[in-house]
Amino acid sequence: MDGPTVAAIAFGILLLLLALRVPIGVALATVSIGGIIALRGTRPAFGVLGSLPFDFAASWSLSAVPMFLLMGSIAYHTGLTRSLYSAARLWLNSLPGGLAVASNFASAGFAAASGSSLATAAAMGRLAIPEMLAYGYDRGLATGTIAAAGTLGAFIPPSIAFVLYGWYTQQPVGTLLIAGIIPGLLTAGAYTVMIVIRCSLNPELAPRVRVRAGVAEKFAALRDVWPLPLLIMSVVGGIFSGVATATEAGAVGAMFALLIALFSGRLTLRSLHASFMEALRTTASIFFIAIGAILLTRFLAMAGVPRLMSEIVTGWHLGAVGVIVTMILVYLLLGMFLDPIGIMLLTLPVFLPMFDELNINLIWIGVLVVKMIEVGLLTPPVGLNAFVVKNIVGDTVSLNEIFSGLSWFLVCEVVIVALLIIFPALSLWLPGLMEG
Amino acid sequence: ETHLTYGSTLPAPHLAHHAALEPFFERVSDATDGAVTWEIMPGGTMGGVKEVVQMLRDNVTDSGLILDLFTRRELPVTSTVSDLITLPDDFIVYGAAANEFQLIACPECVAERSEQNIVGLAYYGPDPYRLMCRDQTRTYADLQNKKTRATGRLGVLMQEFGATTVTIPSSEVYESLQRGQADCTAASTAWLDSYNLKDVVETVIDLPMGSYFNANIMSMNAEVYHGLSESERAAINENLAGLVVDVMLAYKKEGDAGLDNAVASGVELVQPDERLLTALAAFRKGEVENTIATAEAAGVKNARKMVETYLSLVEKWRAILSEIGVDDREAFVAALNREVFSKAKF
Amino acid sequence: MLTAHKWFSRLNTVLIAVAIMACAAMMVQVSLDVISKYLFNYPIPLTLEAVASFHMVALIFLPLGLVTRERGHVGVDLFTRNLSERRLAVFDGCAGLLGVAYAAVLIWFTTSEALHKTRIGETWETAFGYVEVWPARWLVPAGCVAMALWFALLLIDDLRFAATGERSLPSARSADEAVSAS
Ligand code: NA
Ligand code: NA
Hints:
The complex is a heterotrimer.
Chain A (H helix, E strand, L loop, with lengths): L2 H17 L4 H17 L1 H16 L6 H14 L2 H12 L6 H14 L5 H18 L4 H11 L10 H10 L3 H7 L1 H21 L13 H7 L5 H14 L7 H16 L5 H34 L2 H12 L3 H16 L4 H18 L4 H15 L7 H10 L5 H24 L2 H10 L2
Helix pairs in contact in A: 1-2, 2-3, 2-15, 4-7, 4-14, 4-15, 5-7, 6-7, 6-8, 6-11, 7-8, 7-20, 8-20, 8-21, 9-18, 9-19, 10-22, 11-21, 13-14, 15-18, 15-20, 16-18, 17-18, 17-19, 18-19, 19-21, 20-21
Chain B lengths: L1 E6 L7 H17 L4 E6 L10 H6 L5 E4 L24 H15 L1 H9 L2 E7 L4 E5 L6 H4 L3 E3 L2 H9 L3 E3 L6 H7 L4 E5 L2 H4 L8 E3 L9 E7 H6 L2 H35 L3 E3 L3 H24 L5 H22 L4 H13 L5
Parallel strand pairs in B: 1-2, 1-3, 6-7, 6-8, 9-11
Antiparallel strand pairs in B: 3-10, 4-10, 5-8, 5-9
Chain C lengths: L1 H39 L6 H15 L2 H6 L15 H36 L2 E4 L2 E4 L1 H4 L1 H26 L18
Antiparallel strand pairs in C: 1-2
Helix pairs in contact in C: 1-2, 1-6, 2-6, 4-6
The structure holds sodium ion (2 copies).
One sodium ion (NA) binds next to loops of chain A.
């Protein structure tokens, strides 16, 4: 059997296994191992299996994910998040979906500190979702907002995704980071508009508070909100002032949350234990899935999927628009199953030569690529941001509710991607300004 | 027809792929009338730098790039000379010598790779590391206590220079120089372009501080290599010298271009002061003994003899290359074929 | 089965304790490194290596037993939502079987890899010389053993429930561990 046939069969089995409730990490690994055995024999398959789990986990850059998870869970379990949200509730009462909008912008702020979507969703999820649920927000809206707004982490600098794209394509990282800013703000803006419209049309999604608070009461509520803004500002400030790198900031943030909780008298052994347990649980289950996704990437590369794609797309003799639209569709498809790095690894070698030939600006393409791999974090069945959120909420919200909540954000993404394609200036104007 | 895979941890558009490996694969394919074709799997798709030896041994890929600094204990003998990384004052000389050493002068190395089910076919060295700083660091005195990103023996060298060595992954170099988590970095001048360091760096000290000359650009799974027909193997072997020369000349070109572009965009190229030169010379002297001691501690017998052999080959190639000049591709290829590839038994 | 549950839970407790220590050590060590680097120009040696090669591996693999016990692996329940509890248990049992198989294969090959790396004494090169990292290789099979045991135990419980309608194990999450928003 040739590679593509094996890959097609493997995908069929994968979908079947997922439908039968097999854990995603197990399903991805099973078909990948089976596929590699079918293509190259047992020795390569078991060789990969022996070394990949450790080599993937033993990563400094990824350490920001568990540390930001820990920061978020400490802030939640010690009650640092509560007062901010009760104040936000009073202040944003007049805005439909006020808390969701606030969480959306808080994520944008946090994204300025964190280079990773997963870390952003992890940290903000713990801070925001329980509060939104406590105020009766629709479960899909609350979780979808955080999972989607987490992707701002990759657009507002710093951004691991842009750094990796820059490395894989040998494009200047600084220019790419600047290029991501406006698309990131555009995304935050589009999400806001969508949330406000949905909540105005259907107020049940985000119940407003009955009691009308006076001005004095509103200001009184501000007295206790300081811990969370202090935490976020010190993480962001620590990075901008050159004290800590984006990776180190995770650990520093967790430490800082611990200290704030300690000095404000809110730290108990019980809350500390709960925070650590939660960070561990979420880290382990997310990375377990990621290992499966990377196994799948290796299998697809062995199956010659990149070569097949390249033959097909080259054979079509598409123009610039055709290639870009094809790329978007390929990313949408692969994004359903793979992690961001895997998608870039499989597709960039295929598409880069075509873009080169068609003289398409690779900075602009970088923005589209990052946008699409971020969309992949939100699409079922394998959507890592949705899984981060799922781990945070436990059994209170089902995965289906999260994905259906996310579908509204995906509608926004269709508009955003269309705008990014139609108006390249959205991506290229700011870097052009920078270079004079 | 044989379709082979090449696993690389370098990004797809990397010069090692388009300027050296792809032309090499094409020459082999032509010489075999299309019977042997290759496909590069770039960016670490098939495994990271630490997995490469195992990846080749288990035939996850058929061929690949081994940077044995990351897999010291998998290949302790082959990587003996790798600790001399800070020595190269001329990376092309050291790279050429690495081929003769690995393929001919060091039978223990050949045997070790063979035990790992791997055939090492060609070696190279990339362009050298230089010091680059975000501020006006120009001298040894300026460098004191500067947070400098460097790894391995280069990191030790930075400490020797009085700088503070910090460990930051290459993906964060740009950000950390921009914001000051690092003041300086030891880096290839090609990074000025590829990581855009020219935007965040003010000075480059024009002092080559070494090059990783023991990079095995072409290694193959032994069963796959020996499974090819005799004429197919000959087609590979006859084109290896061209591969070695192409990759090193491409590095030279790209490194020079990176520096030129940087200078054009306002980065200052600073000549090293006397104290830097003496400190580097003193450090290099100690590195030979250190390399021998490290290898012996890892259980390598004859480490001293191996290091001395390699260094004598460096002088041999220094003489050869000063005669033909590095820019004469054909003469360089002929010399490598005459001295190394026509004699090597793979 | 309750005895197995008790002993497997104890195993989890031990592994989680190590993982918590790794997580705490990571937070403390990186923070100290940042402070010391900023204030005294003195980075704490080997911070990156300790975090990457040990702490990260510990906190990713050691909790896998706990995640499995709590049925915390993410799965898709879109197509099986309307099934009865006992029908679901059949599906979960089959999924558990695959889980046991995957975990067993992982244990086998990551153990042989750990053995190999131990034998050669795997090192990473740093600015402070070569550091031995091979002990961390054993964290992978250690976590996978706990995962395999829990997959197996839950699988038996699921199949039993499917057949008889009775469970013999206590429910997945105890009250104090529940993370549901209150
Ligand atoms: Na960011
Ligand atoms: Na997805």
